[in-house]
Amino acid sequence: MGSTSAQNDTPNSTPSGTPDQGGVGRRDLIKRSAALGLISVPAMGFLSACASGGGGDEKSDKPKGEKTKDNPFGVAKGGKLDVVVFKGGYGDDYAKAWEASFQKKWGVTASHTGTQEITGKLQPRFNAGNPPDIIDDSGAQKIKIDVLNKNGQLLDLAAVLDAPSIDDPSKKVRDTLIPGTLDAGVLEGKTVALNYIYTVWGLWYSGKLFKEKGWSEPKTWDDFLAICKDATKQGIGGLAHQGKYPYYINVAIMDLIAKKGGLDAMKAIDNLDPKAFVGSDAAKAAVEAVYEVVEKGYLMPGTNGLTHTESQTRWNQYKAAFITSGSWLENEQLKQTPDDFDMKFMPMPLLPGSAMPYEAIRAGSGEPFIIPSKAANLPEAQEFMRMMLSKEWSSLFAKEANSLTILADGVDPNVKLRPGTQSTVEASKKAGTNTFRFLYTEWYSEMDTEIQNASNELMAKRIQPAEWLKRAQAAVDKAAKTPAAKKNHRD
Fold it and tell me: Which residue, of 71, 99, 299, 458, has the fewest CB within 10 Å?
């Protein structure tokens, strides 16, 4: 994650750095990729100790700035800013570049922490009522945003989103973003997280390996299984997955559900329908399809016991034909990927009778940035986030992290994107308005964890599809009884 989620890149998450592609005219490609968003015109004890509503504690000697048209939050010269960034697939060089720019413009001294241990490092600070000012809350050890929100620990970002855009002050910040990309950060009617990176999820393969083996990108699940079978015969795993983080195999299961049953099947899960899983033909077909890979022995040997990076590295060594991930994968694997690997992204293949076309992909925003409600330097944190949504900083991110942001047309044409990310740009263009995005992962973290646990058991052959469906439905039914369920809903 950079990943969203159980990732050291991110899933959902988050958790995750993602590359982009090249090919075609790069200038046109990047412009079209931005246009893309475009086409869819797409343990709680420690937290309760820090429940709070208002802003950070103001100290009498803290400098105060005057609020103006160009300084809407009143940033003061000589102030401070405490930044914590998940150092996963996207690294943290982009944040260091942002901080240098921020310091140059405002004279604000930024302290920087890049880490994968988000909960470990920040739990004591939240406990003490002394959280950082802005956090990239992603990765396998992220703090659960729905829990933070329930305890009043997150700032409502409306003021940032309604502030003037740095590039065009006649527009609000929110009006410069790819449509639909704010959705993942809306909990109980408020935007409490800014998912900054435009992400796609699906299957990945090596163009070099496919060319050598004479394989073509499979558009149906049967064709996918045929390649897995051929690979296994040749001593290559069919599918690798990041066994210790079952978030990743849920990319396959959930994508198949959405593509088989259409948006209604996806919304049934997010809206906690009593037949979201048990009683859903799409869910049954999807989990049975993934289990077929297990039953037929098409998994890469040992993949169930590997971390995300271990499994991905073996895939980079041509020990598996496919792997599931989000678009942070290329950047996360830069050091492990052979120069001629030719990383490629592809949509999830279709099950028979699918409601959505092959080109449909899960796409949207990932890598959530949050501002704690008790941040000591709220004006600086809010201005920092506003500057994140400028073309200058969006281009800095693309340059350093090899990925697109949620800012529409937000990347300078001179920024070169890598081959894997390039393929995500092309896939997004082909998908057009045929995109989808689950929100239960952000809305109901406990439900997400329980479904991941069921998937872990499924891939290890300790349970079968019928039991997986029961466990997933039980997680839905449990979430439906929480107060948040009354406020979270998608039409």
Answer: 71
3 state DSSP class of 362:
strand
Q: Report whether pLDDT(38) > 60.
A: no
CA 276 – CA 283 distance, rounded (Å): 8
CA 145/CA 366 separation, integer angstroms: 13
Give the integer Cα–Cα distance in Å for 37 and 363. Answer: 9
Mean pLDDT of the chain: 88
Vertex 152 angle, CA 88 and 114, to 5°:
20
Q: Which tokens sit at 473?
A: 């439905």
CA 361 to chain centre: 14
Angle between helices 247-261 and 263-270 (to 10 degrees): 130
> What would the pLDDT profile of 209-223 be if each residue is shown by its tens digit?
999 999 999 999 999
Cα–Cα distance measured from residue 4 to residue 438, given in angstroms and rounded to the nearest whole number? 12
- For 398-446, give the DSSP string: HHHH---BSBTT-S-TT----HHHHHHHHHHHHHTT-EE---HHHH-HH
Q: How many residues does the chain have?
A: 491
**Which tokens is 43 given?**
């343990």
Higher pLDDT pick, 190 / 61: 190
Average pLDDT, integer, range 358-386: 96
247-278-272-282 Cα dihedral, nearest 10 degrees: 70
Question: Residue 280 is inside which H or E element, if any?
Answer: none
- The dihedral built from the CA positions of residue 439, 409, 10 and 380, taken in this order, carries a sign that is negative
Per-residue pLDDT, 297? 98
Predicted local distance difference test score (pLDDT) of residue 126? 87
Supply the pTM of this predicted model. Answer: 0.78
Nearest to 150 by CA among 230, 44, 40, 299: 44
Query: Cβ neighbours of residue 173 under 8 Å, at least 6 residues apart?
Result: 160, 161, 162, 163, 164, 165, 386, 389
Q: Which of 18, 8, 324, 307 is nearest to 139 (CA)?
A: 8
Quick check: 112 and 92 in contact, CB under 8 A? Answer: yes
Q: Report the distance separating Cα 359 and Cα 296, nearest Å.
A: 27
pLDDT in tens, 70-91: 999 999 999 999 999 999 889 9
What whole-number distance in Å separates Cα of residue 57 and Cα of residue 129?
Answer: 9
CA–CA gap between residue 169 and residue 164 (Å, rounded): 5
Q: Which helix (H) or strand (E) holds 225?
A: helix 221-233
Six token digits for residue 96: 């260091």
